[in-house]
Specification:
- With 681 residues, this protein is an alpha/beta fold.
- The chain folds into 3 domains: 231 residues, Aldehyde Dehydrogenase, Chain A, domain 1; 195 residues, Aldehyde Dehydrogenase, Chain A, domain 2 (3-Layer(aba) Sandwich); 151 residues, Thiol Ester Dehydrase, Chain A.
- 31% of the residues lie in helices and 24% in strands.
- Helix 2 runs antiparallel to helix 4, helix 4 packs parallel to helix 5 and helix 12 runs parallel beside helix 13.
- The protein is globular, with a radius of gyration of 30 Å.
- The structure holds NADPH dihydro-nicotinamide-adenine-dinucleotide phosphate.
- The site of NADPH dihydro-nicotinamide-adenine-dinucleotide phosphate has 25 residues, from helix 7.
Length: 681
């Protein structure tokens, strides 16, 4: 008997004493391991996540969490051979493992980088600007996201044992939530190996990741209002989870990614001579064969113009005939096995159901030519292409979770969009067209029904990541039948784990709460110019009140000559007078901003290293010759950069005229040394 898979629970590896269920190699039928969660203390795992993991993660800033994800990704990437070797036992070819394993590591890297660049060096995220709530400016509102003191339970499908875990773990971890990962039993041995390497590395704080190998049917009993469940799998199990009392009545957040009958539409503009035809067929064959079609994003419905259906079927058949099926370890093999014999039975049943309204035009469900493999012991299946009859129903209802796709035809573009919508909501759709009008009509028609849409043509094909690849920076999930959930999407995926709360307070207390200076809050004007202060010395609210300077007609004329910006409002009195907004010559906005810099700058070498931009620049009141302007600059936000001896300082800048009206408002962004003078060596 092979070894029992272990769960990682409450800081130690747990092995069930039960006999367990055997897990078989998808290609050879040999037993790989056994699985059982009998005896595992699920309540203890939930407590451990909440009491140990959560507080440890939330002690870290977003940047520190991102740094750990980066270290983890680098650590796991360093030695992939054993992961690839075990991945082959799930039926995956090397190309399939690339999607699962490297795709998972890539997602970690992507979140690490987004977290450092797009989240603050803090534990809260501000959402949108401050809202003034009173006339006197003493009462303001601000939305902010905070971490929830709960646990993120992740229930994954069998098809992506590595990516499925990491794509859920990364955003949850950044959001400050500990994870309990529950892989699908069939391929849990691969997830277990990766979790083992993660735990051994000691990179993540204890309690931030636990692993449940075996049944999770009672896990939700222990969850409450601060907890969430992210589920990927069948619509049937999703239904069971949706009906759980703690989801219905106790506020457990449930995200579902379930069945999806994704489509790809070939545009009516495409002729047999266009490169888009080959792109369409190539994508279809790739989606049918990568992971042996066991991808939630695979193309199940190929929707093509009536006039091209024979051509599409012919070209697809030619390409499918070249797909070598067999032992996934053999480098010549293009398509490996399904995850299990049971899964193959399911797909055969689904194909039988599809045949009620479609003809099988390529492949035989009961026979496949194999290389280095045994058709009885391994879960192999030939790629199968069907062609739907007019008015077919089943292709819009039955998800064959294997190397199977159905070709449907349309007469008009409206019909193509209507057919796509009959999938009742999908993860991804694609349209292959080079016609801008077709692209817009199809995308706008498909968008309400899809989480992601790929528009493929000759121009983007070279760089396209393909129909079926979810990307960490783009939303993954879909409406309706696809489950209604959303994962990934860059920082959106992080914020989804957090609680957005509207805070109402005075500007001073809002500044204290958010860590960002709020308009109206106290400012500190001291003898030392803030440009003389290092990052360590600067405080939120440190401020400069500049002297004023009168803008002259000569200044404006000089700026116009010097820069070449001789726009009439700055140079032609008569024309400027006719301008309804100005009524006469006005200073260039950029002149105002440049003069303001001259007013606030401290010119000597010091801790301010560079100005790297401005944000939210607005010119509010025109400046005319003779107007005196002055500027107030206030430290708004301080963000130390990890692994650098400087950080970012965001300054709130307000340029005003003599009447006190704001002329320009913006944020100045500078890089400031952490210490000054710099420490030698
Ligand atoms: P399941 O829904 O059976 O399993 C998905 C996950 O849920 C597994 O981890 C499973 O664990 C777990 N699970 C099952 N029952 C419960 C429960 N009562 N409470 C908590 N967790 C539970 O899907 P499969 O992975 O077996 O795939 C079945 C079908 O689902 C496929 O053939 C395909 O049609 C569809 N599918 C769709 C996907 C998509 O995103 N579109 C992705 C994967 C599958 P365990 O394995 O231990 O039972």
């Amino acid at each position: 008997m092979t070894a029992m898979l272990e769960s990682y629970a409450a800081g130690r590896w747990f092995r069930s004493e039960a006999e367990g269920e055997p897990l078989l190699d998808a290609a050879t039928g040999e037993e790989v391991a056994r699985i059982s969660a009998a005896g595992l203390d699920l309540a203890g795992m939930v407590d451990h996540a909440r009491d140990v993991g959560g507080p440890a993660i939330r002690d870290l800033t977003f940047h520190e969490r991102a740094q750990l994800l980066k270290e983890l990704a680098a650590h796991l990437s360093a030695d992939k051979d054993e992961i690839y070797a075990l991945s082959a036992r799930t039926g995956a070819t090397r190309r399939d493992s690339l999607v699962d394993v490297d795709g998972g590591f890539g997602t970690l890297f992507s979140y690490a980088s987004k977290g450092r660049r797009e989240l603050p060096a803090d534990t809260v995220v501000l959402d949108g600007p401050t809202e003034p709530l009173g006339r006197a400016g003493t009462f303001v509102g601000q939305h902010l996201y905070v971490s929830r003191p709960g646990v993120a339970v992740q229930i994954n499908a069998f098809n992506f044992p590595v990516w499925g875990m990491l794509e859920k773990l990364a955003p949850a971890f950044l959001a400050g939530m500990p994870s309990i990962v529950k892989p699908a039993s069939q391929t849990a041995y691969l997830t277990e190996l990766v979790v083992r390497r993660i735990v051994e590395s000691g990179i993540l704080p204890e309690g931030s990741l636990q692993l449940l190998c075996g049944s999770a049917t009672t896990l939700l009993d222990h969850l409450g209002p601060m907890d969430s469940v992210a589920f990927t799998g069948s619509a049937h199990t999703a239904g069971i989870l949706r009906d759980h009392p703690n989801v219905l009545h106790a506020g457990v957040r449930l995200g579902v990614e379930a069945d999806s009958l994704n489509c790809s539409i070939l545009g009516p503009d495409v002729t047999p001579d266009d490169p888009e035809l080959e792109l369409f067929v190539k994508a279809l064959v790739a989606e049918m064969t990568v992971k042996a079609g066991q991808k939630c994003t695979a193309i199940r419905r190929a929707i093509v113009p009536e006039s091209l259906v024979d051509t599409v079927v012919g070209l697809t058949a030619e390409r499918l005939a070249r797909v070598v099926v067999g032992d996934p370890r053999n480098p010549d093999v293009r398509m490996g096995a399904l995850a299990s014999l049971a899964q193959r039975d399911e797909v055969r049943k689904a194909v039988e159901a599809l045949r009620a309204s479609a003809d099988l035009v390529v492949g035989d469900p009961d026979h496949v030519e194999l290389v280095d493999a045994d058709a009885e012991r391994g879960a192999f299946l030939a790629p199968l292409l069907l062609r739907a009859h007019a008015g077919a129903v089943e292709p819009h209802e039955v998800e064959p979770f294997g190397p199977v796709s159905t070709v449907l035809t349309y007469a008009t573009l409206e019909e193509a969009v209507a057919l796509a919508a009959r999938g009742s909501g999908s993860l991804v759709g694609s349209v292959v067209t080079h016609d801008p009008e077709v692209a817009r009509r199809v995308v706008l028609g498909l968008a309400p029904w899809h989480g992601r849409i790929l528009v493929l043509d000759r121009d983007d094909a070279g760089e396209s990541t393909g129909h079926g690849s979810p990307l960490p920076v783009l939303v993954h999930g879909g409406p309706g039948r696809a489950g209604g959930g959303e994962e990934l999407g860059g920082i959106r995926g992080v914020l989804r784990h957090m609680q957005r709360t509207a805070i109402q307070a005075s500007p001073d207390l809002m500044t204290a709460i958010t860590g960002r200076w709020t308009t109206g809050a106290r400012r500190r004007v001291e003898a030392v110019h803030p440009f003389r202060k290092s990052l360590a010395e600067l405080r939120i609210g440190d401020s400069i009140e500049s002297p004023s300077r009168t803008v002259t007609l000569e200044d404006i004329a000089h700026f116009a000559d010097f820069t070449g910006d001789t726009f009439y409002a700055h140079t032609d009195e008569e024309a400027a007078r006719a301008n309804p907004l100005f009524g006469g010559i006005v200073a260039h906005g950029y002149l105002v901003v440049s003069l303001a810099a001259g007013l606030f700058v401290e010119p000597n070498p010091g801790p301010v290293l560079a100005n790297f931009g401005v944000d939210s620049l607005r010119f509010l009141t025109p400046v005319k010759a003779g107007d005196a302007i002055s500027v107030r600059l206030t430290v708004k936000q301080i963000t130390p950069r990890t692994n650098a001896d400087y950080g970012e300082v965001r300054w709130d800048a307000v340029v005003s005229n003599a009447a006190g009206d704001p002329v320009a408002t913006y944020d100045v962004l500078t890089l400031v040394a952490k210490r000054w003078p710099p420490v030698e060596g």
